[in-house]
Specification:
Number of helices of chain A: 7
Distance between the termini of chain A: 38 Å
Radius of gyration of chain A: 31 Å
Helix content of chain A: 10-25%
Shape of chain A: elongated
Strand content of chain A: 25-35%
Oligomer: homodimer
Number of strands of chain A: 26
Chain lengths: 397, 397
Amino acid sequence: MSGRDDVRLRGFADRASVERALAWVDDHAARLSAVEVGVAESAGRIPAAPLTALAEHPPVDRSGEDGYAARSGDTVGASAYSPVLLRIQDTAAPLNPASAALVAAGAALPRGADAILAFEAVQAIGPTLEVIAPVAEGTGVERAGQQIRALAPLAGTVRPLRPHEAGLLASLGVDRVSVVAQPRVRVVVAGAKAVQGAHGAGDAHGPMLRALIERDGGTIEVRGAGAGVRDAIRRALGEPGADLVIATGRTGTGPDDEAAPAVAETGELALHGVALRPGGSSGMGVAGGVPVILLPGDPLACLCAYELFAGRFVRRLGGRDPELPHATREAEVRRKIVSAVGLVEICQVRLVAGRVEPLGVAEFGGLPSAAGADGFVVIPAVLEGYAPGARVTVHTY
Amino acid sequence: MSGRDDVRLRGFADRASVERALAWVDDHAARLSAVEVGVAESAGRIPAAPLTALAEHPPVDRSGEDGYAARSGDTVGASAYSPVLLRIQDTAAPLNPASAALVAAGAALPRGADAILAFEAVQAIGPTLEVIAPVAEGTGVERAGQQIRALAPLAGTVRPLRPHEAGLLASLGVDRVSVVAQPRVRVVVAGAKAVQGAHGAGDAHGPMLRALIERDGGTIEVRGAGAGVRDAIRRALGEPGADLVIATGRTGTGPDDEAAPAVAETGELALHGVALRPGGSSGMGVAGGVPVILLPGDPLACLCAYELFAGRFVRRLGGRDPELPHATREAEVRRKIVSAVGLVEICQVRLVAGRVEPLGVAEFGGLPSAAGADGFVVIPAVLEGYAPGARVTVHTY
């Protein structure tokens, strides 16, 4: 790190734009390779390649319900006053004329049968079946390939498999599924500064990032830094087994803000300082081939920078949609939202009667403002905020 | 089970309304008791009681950023041409007049200071600080209690803790959180009927229900039934350790549909057969104090009945919102949706240019229709469906 780039006791002379930081993430986060998992564990994972049906389903014409398989032609004219009588025969044999065979839903249709008589419409008396209403050809019959044709697409490679898609694969005989590996994220949490007392902002990072990284499909290994932040970051970058290192805290301009220097000394600090609020002291780099993202120590800034940058990195590694994963909602601004031109701002908001109200102050609302929020609004750097009546996109928690 | 209630080889004479089935669920699924978990595992769990802040946060007036703490009055008139000079003093002592003290973000404000000078606005020359712009009182200062007041509510008891709420609790010094216990669901899967070949509909149930039950906050234990469906269900109901037993398959009107008789013989079969499509052979009961829900063997019917009934039971046990957990979206019907009066129907739909198109046929679309769907529409029993142009609610996958 050249003296010119060290922000300690100087401040951020030149912050990178959010666009540049996002571009760095997109350039450095490549989809991981494939691993095989059992079909029972495949829900929630991203298929490594498109999945197609190997065979049609159902494989044969079959009964769609419990009942008696029959020839529809035999039932013409049947009524309660003039029932048609069919002989009940063995299900395994081809259907004889004027006969019916007991079938269960899902059973192959006996040869010659073309309809299923539901139990409600018949009465079995010994070996004879009384049919009291005619049945149309094809009633209750499910044709081979009706649900799915051979080579039909089952799932793509852009979103996690849904529970019923895992079920479908299993019912088609798939035992193992090739999916994108889970990103392994190593998180180094800088300890609380002594001045903040027994509990500090840093205590929030582990529990919060664990849940966020798991939401984004990754696995997390949390390490405390103790007193030696610089050593802890260097060790985390030097050991194998991580697809991404995240270090939280000690990213600012104070004398003990050693996270950025630690990366600069070990590898390349690509950028430090982003035109984002909260989250402006974020940084990114690569050391020993391992990408590293520095998140601010303030918990709300850590949350915002995770969502925009580190979460995007994790989602890209795991083959997911890199965009913010929250459900969005368009809504009208009720109370003015103020923002500084030149900074992308993340404003925590509440939805009151369907309209958007900002919560707290960008800098000092802290995590409680997010805990009380229904979601957040991302305000582009070119805007001074939003006037009442403006339409905005809320990313809902 | 009286002969009159046995539907085998007879059909469902009298199906319960969906309302009655939902009322049974609501009557029998009571919120489980509380357990304690570590704060790092609390995200995604439902607090057993409302959580409030034990103390205000931050506990003292503190610096909101890295810089120099100063008295705003001392900086009046400062400019680049006529800088104000302050003496840099020790941070631990009260601030002397015409002095400044180095502080890190989060540090307690030295007594006497009322503003923070950012590094960008000053230059330190040896023991002297040159200030080139006046600073307003309160700039960069975070007041005690500004983020949260003592006894302020932190989280309620109706939705899972969010990642940043777990982080907030941790940063406030909370180590353990009392949350609603996870529902323990024991699932008995009836094996594939021999007629269906090596792989059958039943193979879908385990993988699908595992992911659905975990989505709803429960844990799952899957048991195959082998040939003895009746014994397997009775054993599952007789052993301790389950808050709910789900049995899938063998719920219909065929001769080997033994799920409902097994419940009736062991305890009380409250209802069997619901006016729902797909999912009409669902059943519910209680045996030995354990509630049991029977889900149809057809995988799509199993999915629909899980979502409406069993999932609701699991969500209620775990203290979650019992309603369907999918994000909803109002949209206009593009192609007519057909439904039978007297049945609640679940129609798989695709959203095409923001409008709703039905997929497949209710009875025989099978799981592939759900795999290709963007969500589903629940059609009330009183309606024949929806004409093009009607507005419907889509539950999105």
